[in-house]
Design a protein that fits this description.
The complex is a heterotrimer of chains A (211), B (118) and C (532). Chain A is 77% helix and 0% strand. Chain A is mainly α and 211 residues long. The chains are: A mainly alpha (211), B mainly alpha (118), C mainly alpha (532).
């Protein structure tokens, strides 16, 4: 219980937690602007080639995309629960398992994404000389941005999975470096990756499904 | 005494997370469904609005922005405002340019001049 | 034991998380890059001394001015005051033992070095000929030079910047000594805080832009190519969204330095402290709204150009407030013309000239004629060299005793300051005239009627170069044989002056007390001992 810690150590712990959290939020702010540049390219391209974007988007795998969205939302909830389990709740044992489950769902996301990419390659949807929709103006640009956005997102997701695996191990072995404030910071990063995908989902999969 | 207090607090929090998750999945399905309805030109708006709502849930409840203190909320708001500025102020250019698009043509250049990784 | 004595091995330096040692690591690195960029400038001015393009080929010339820009902007100016003076002083000024994330600070340095080495590698392989601005479609489709490698280096140094900014923001929020409220902070800390916000928000946009150019160059993705449905101007919007705030990254810390020096050597509190703080924040914010003034003739819409022109006028207001307040600080002060003060006053004058010419360029109707001429070149050199570099030297001289524990020869320092001031003006003032007369930038040959002014400029550059070399001599000498500086040789206010020179590794023996007022100078108090 916090009441039993020496006041000084408690103050330092609170300060350290605040520092770690603030640092991660600022980093996420910079990441938002990093993705933001790609979103700007997307905004330009979609407003200039609305038909092409609609037709191209219809060729994405909406079932897999939706499934992936669900996986990531669920993993985010589990990671949030893991953070809630920290501290004087008596449920510290759950933390490694929840983090591991989050990582597992994230890995499943990446596997499905890889499957989508393979399928898109087979269907000739990779931009380049062999692009299947060359006759549709803007379609190739859509897929350029699709691969850039989901690719960059996947790289971030991979980093997130690595973080969750590391902290899952660290909390299970009760390592000092896997302190609650760091788990919380890693969780913030994971949620950010989720938020990015929340926006990518309608922007890439749902441009025009009724056409 | 303290233990049940902590336990009750945890149960409350866990319940809130569960509700948030349910809301997120429901919103995702709404987003999917709305895409199949003919709502032009509102399809994009609806999709983005739902995404914004989902993000707000993740930010507020998962990322605990509600309890994180004013400074963190200002950090998040500032980053978002900067992104909106980037997207919005460039639109002043794009919306007021008179487009004269060239017909789609084969690329003039397929490789960089030397072909090598430069 | 002071921080310099705390370990003498290479490892103790290269593995140190002490913000003071990291500051020195940065100082050495940026100095080296400064001379590489300066060498490029020397060749440029040698070529331009005569109208004919006879020293180097046009292609080599393009690579020279690109190298000069890339190195000076990203490897010198951006890190100079924040990563050297900021790193050393921010914790000291707020009474902290180190930055919030000391290991992240060391990582920032390594990222900077890695990026710098990649850029140098590209230079040795033959360099880039696109200009530091990398405009598409030339950079993505036609340039036969090391664009991708250079941008990879820029990308890496960008992350160094972001992490440094992050570190400073968290530090200022969480590690201030009790009682040190925001309105008791030195303006240098305010300046670095605002700079850090820009670093964190703007640099990522540069990073993604660099990535896109590399992708377009390697795989012809087409976002900047109209034949593929893209837009070359998309690059310029993205690039300048970063690069305009970047100039405030270069100038705000400089203003912070000047705000520390002028009160000290006028022995008066800064005039209008709160307005100075608000002006810093205003410059940082408005600076994000004006990037389109780099694109007036690019094909941007007229409406957008007008909006950007108007917004660019606005940013002059807080800058002017600062100039007025520095001047007002001098009024009825007891002014001492020590070397730091000479540099600081040089900043005020030259920044004013640069700022006024900035207003000229912000005027859409005038810019249409002046863009891509030497008028623009002179404008930004007045701000960045006459402004930022001078302020960096000012800070170097002001805090040298604190960092090294030694005094330098103030006489020689003043000689260098005067040489730099004169050399600078002889180099760059003629360039305003050349610009108005129509001489375009980035050309290695020019019509004979421009020769006289170009010759003046090149001659001035010789004086400027001498001025820059001189500090190597007397500062180097001070390290060997300089008089021991006390804790506070200039009788300055600020917590950094309350600890010994050089400071102990953990900065303070006892937690310092927040001062009653931030610039508690009294012009009537007894004068500090003059330097040697």
């Amino acid at each position: 219980m916090s009441a039993s810690l020496p006041l000084e150590r408690h103050r330092e712990a609170v300060a350290a937690a605040r520092t770690a959290s603030l640092g991660m939020w600022i980093f996420l702010g910079s990441e938002l602007l990093f993705f933001g540049g790609l979103l700007m390219a997307y905004l330009y391209a979609r407003t200039h080639w609305p038909q092409g974007f609609g037709q191209a988007s219809a060729r994405t795998h909406v079932v897999l995309g939706t499934l992936n969205t669900g996986l990531l939302l669920t993993s985010s909830a589990l990671v949030a629960l893991a953070v809630a389990c920290q501290g004087p709740t008596g449920r510290g044992r759950w933390v490694p398992w929840l983090l591991g489950a989050g990582a597992a769902l994230g890995t499943a996301f990446l596997a499905i994404k890889g499957w989508e990419y393979r399928s898109e390659w087979r269907e000739g949807l990779f931009p380049g000389p062999g692009f299947a929709l060359k006759a549709v103006a803007g379609a190739e640009l859509f897929f350029v941005l699709y691969f850039l956005l989901t690719g960059l997102h996947s790289v971030h997701l991979l980093v997130g999975v690595a973080l969750l695996v590391a902290f899952g191990r660290g909390t299970r072995k009760k390592r000092a470096w896997a302190a609650p404030r760091r788990v919380e910071a890693a969780a913030l990063y994971w949620h950010f990756v989720d938020v990015v995908w929340i926006f990518l989902y309608p922007l890439l999969y749902l441009v025009n499904r009724h056409g | 005494m303290a233990e049940t207090h902590e336990s009750a607090g945890f149960a409350r929090r866990a319940r809130r997370l569960l509700l948030a998750w349910v809301a997120l999945i429901a919103l995702m399905l709404c987003s999917l469904g709305s895409a199949y309805l003919r709502l032009e030109p509102w399809n994009a708006v609806v999709g983005l609005a739902i995404a914004a709502l989902k993000s707000a849930i993740v930010l507020w409840l998962f990322m605990d922005l509600a309890r994180a203190g004013a400074l963190v909320r200002i950090v998040a708001a500032t980053a978002l405002a900067t992104l909106v500025l980037l997207l919005g102020l460039t639109q002043v250019d794009y919306r007021t340019r008179r487009p004269a698009p060239a017909p789609l043509q084969p690329a003039q250049q397929l490789r960089t001049p030397s072909g090598a990784l430069r | 034991m002071n921080y310099l004595e705390n370990g003498h091995s290479l490892r103790s330096w290269l593995g140190s998380t002490d913000h003071k040692r990291i500051a020195i690591l940065y100082a050495l690195a940026i100095s080296a890059f400064f001379f590489v960029g300066g060498a490029a400038a020397t060749l440029i001015r040698l070529e331009l001394a005569t109208p004919a393009g006879d020293l180097v080929s046009h292609d080599t010339y393009n690579r020279l001015f690109t190298a000069h820009g890339v190195i000076m902007v990203w490897l010198f100016l951006i890190p100079s005051i924040p990563s050297v003076l900021g790193n050393f002083l921010v914790p000291l000024m707020i009474g902290a033992r180190d930055l919030a994330f000391p290991r992240l600070n060391l990582l920032s340095w390594y990222l900077y070095i890695a990026g710098g080495l990649i850029i140098l590698a590209a230079l040795f392989l033959g360099g880039v000929d696109t200009g530091w601005t990398f405009y598409t479609p030339y950079s993505t489709m036609f340039s036969n030079s090391w664009v991708a490698v250079t941008l990879a280096g820029v990308f890496v140094t960008g992350f160094s910047s972001i992490l440094t900014g992050l570190n400073f923001i968290v530090t200022v929020h969480t590690l201030r000594v009790p009682g040190l409220g925001w309105f008791k902070l030195p303006l240098f800390v305010w300046a670095l805080y605002a700079t850090s916000i820009i670093l964190v928000l703007a640099t990522p946009v540069l990073a993604i832009t660099a990535l896109l150019v590399v992708a377009e160059r390697l795989w012809q993705i087409g976002v900047f190519d109209p034949a593929h449905g893209g837009d070359p101007l998309l690059f310029q919007h993205l690039f300048w969204f970063y690069s305009h705030p970047a100039v405030y990254i270069m100038v705000l810390p400089a203003m912070g330095v000047v705000s520390e020096i002028v009160p000290c050597f006028a022995r008066q509190r800064i005039f209008g402290y709160r307005f100075m703080a608000y002006a810093i924040l205003a410059i940082a914010s408005i600076g994000f709204l004006v990037w389109g003034h780099h694109m007036f003739v690019s094909g941007q819409s007229l409406a957008a150009s007008m909006v950007f022109s108007l917004l660019s006028f606005l940013v002059a207001i807080p800058s002017a407030i600062k100039v007025f307040n520095w001047t007002a600080t001098l009024y009825k002060g007891a002014i001492h013309f020590d070397a730091p003060m000479l540099y600081a006053l040089g900043f005020v004058g030259l920044f004013t000239i640069g700022g006024l010419t900035g207003l000229i360029l912000a005027s859409l109707s005038l810019d249409v004629h002046l863009t891509d001429t030497y008028f623009v070149v002179s404008h930004f050199h007045y701000i960045m060299v006459g402004g930022s570099v001078m302020a960096y030297f000012a800070g170097l001289h002001f805090w040298w005793p604190k960092v090294t524990g030694r005094m330098y020869s103030d006489t020689w320092a003043r000689i260098a300051a005067v040489l730099i001031f004169l050399g600078f003006n002889f180099t760059f003032f003629p360039q305003y005239l050349l610009g108005v007369q129509g001489m375009p930038r980035r050309y290695h040959a020019y019509p004979p009627e421009f020769q006289v002014l170009n010759l003046f400029s090149s001659a001035g550059a010789v004086v400027l170069a001498l001025g820059y070399l001189l500090p190597l001599a007397y500062l180097g000498w001070s390290l060997r044989a300089g008089r021991a500086a006390g804790a506070n040789p200039f009788a300055a206010t600020g917590l950094e002056w309350t600890t010994p020179s050089p400071p102990p590794t953990h900065n303070f023996e006892h937690l310092p007390q927040a001062p009653d007022e931030v610039y508690g100078y009294d012009p009537n108090a007894s004068l500090p001992e003059p330097a040697e």
